[in-house]
Amino acid sequence: MMDLVPAQIATLEKLSRAGFKFVSLTHVERYLSVEKNGFVALLNPSADGLRVFGQAGLRMGEGIGMLIEQGAGKAFVWKRESVPATSELLADFARFKAELQNLLMTE
């Protein structure tokens, strides 16, 4: 159980109102996980509020597919799974990251 300060709770409420869902990823339960439109990010409570830990990515089962260069293009990869990063998927991912960052910056 995390002890959150009122400002962090307010940010979580903003995320919820914006359509982000709180999910549980057992291998990274130290962090708060938020998901929207199939993308997920880990949030680390800090003295400054909430910050994205590591890299956001595509939800792939119980994991987070990281965006990597693969062959002639890009793909989201988790363990042995791979999802080609189409231009539409990349645009959706960019919107997810921008919206999340905007909500976290307005704490």
Give the biggest beta sheet. Answer: 7 strands, antiparallel
Give the overall pLDDT as a whole number: 92
Low-pLDDT parts are: none
Structural class by helix and strand composition:
alpha+beta
First-last Cα distance: 22 Å
Sheet-strand content, in percent, reads: 35-45%
- The helicity comes to 25-40%
Strand order of the largest sheet: 1-2-3-4-5-6-7
The beta-strand count equals: 7
Total number of distinct structural domains: 1
Radius of gyration: 14 Å
Number of helices: 2
Shape, principal axes of CA atoms? globular
The ordered H/E elements are: HEEEEEEEH
Can you describe this structure?
This protein has 107 residues and is α+β, with helices and mostly antiparallel strands. It has one domain. The protein is 29% helix and 43% strand. The chain is built from two helices and seven strands. The protein has helices at residues 6-17, 87-105, and strands spanning 21-23, 32-36, 39-46, 49-60, 63-70, 73-78, 81-84. It has a seven-stranded antiparallel β-sheet, with helices on one face. A hairpin with a 2-residue loop joins strand 2 (32-36) and strand 3 (39-46). It is globular. The two termini are 22 Å apart.
